[in-house]
Amino acid sequence: MPFRSDDLVDDIMRTAPHTIRVFLAFRLACVGCPIATFHTVEDACREHGIDRDKFLAALCDCVPA
Questions:
Q1: d(CA 9, CA 36)
Q2: Are 56 and 1 contacting, i.e. CB atoms less than 8 angstroms apart?
Q3: Spatial separation of the C-alpha atoms in residues 43 and 18, rounded to whole Å
Q4: CA quadruple 57, 17, 44, 4: dihedral positive or negative?
Q5: d(C-alpha 4, C-alpha 6), whole Å
Q6: How far, rounded to the nearest angstrom, does the alpha carbon of residue 15 sit from its chain's CA centroid?
Q7: Tens place of pLDDT per residue across the chain (65 aa)
Q8: Rounded to the nearest 10 degrees, what angle do helices 41-48 and 52-61 cross at?
Q9: Using CA atoms, how far apart are residues 65 and 50, in angstroms rounded to an integer?
Q10: Which residues form the DUF1858 domain (predicted)?
């Protein structure tokens, strides 16, 4: 699995910009948020009431083959 729950949100979006659409689809307002540099996927999902496993699966599904 290329992404983990302890990965920083900002790191994911910077290294894999194609994942931004997944953040937006889950209504996570992480794009441009200054806290994204400190929040892990776990933190963001907890704060926004998102199922972490579903979110991680969607992130992994968007990785080009």
A1: 5
A2: yes
A3: 21
A4: positive
A5: 5
A6: 12
A7: 589 999 999 999 999 999 999 999 999 988 888 999 999 999 999 999 999 999 999 998 987 76
A8: 120
A9: 26
A10: 6-55
Determine the distance from the C-alpha atom of residue 40 to the mean position of all C-alpha atoms in its chain, rounded to a whole number.
Answer: 8
Please state the domain extents for the chain. 7-60
In one-letter notation, the amino acid at residue 63 is V
Q: Is 51 exposed, middle or buried (0-12, 13-18, 19+ CB in 10 A)?
A: exposed
* Of 14, 2, 6, nearest in space to 43 by CA: 6
* Tokens describing residue 48: 């926004």
pTM reported for the whole predicted model? 0.88
Helix (H, G, I), strand (E, B) or coil at 40: strand
Predicted confidence at residue 1, as pLDDT, reads: 53
Residue carrying structure tokens 């992130």: 59
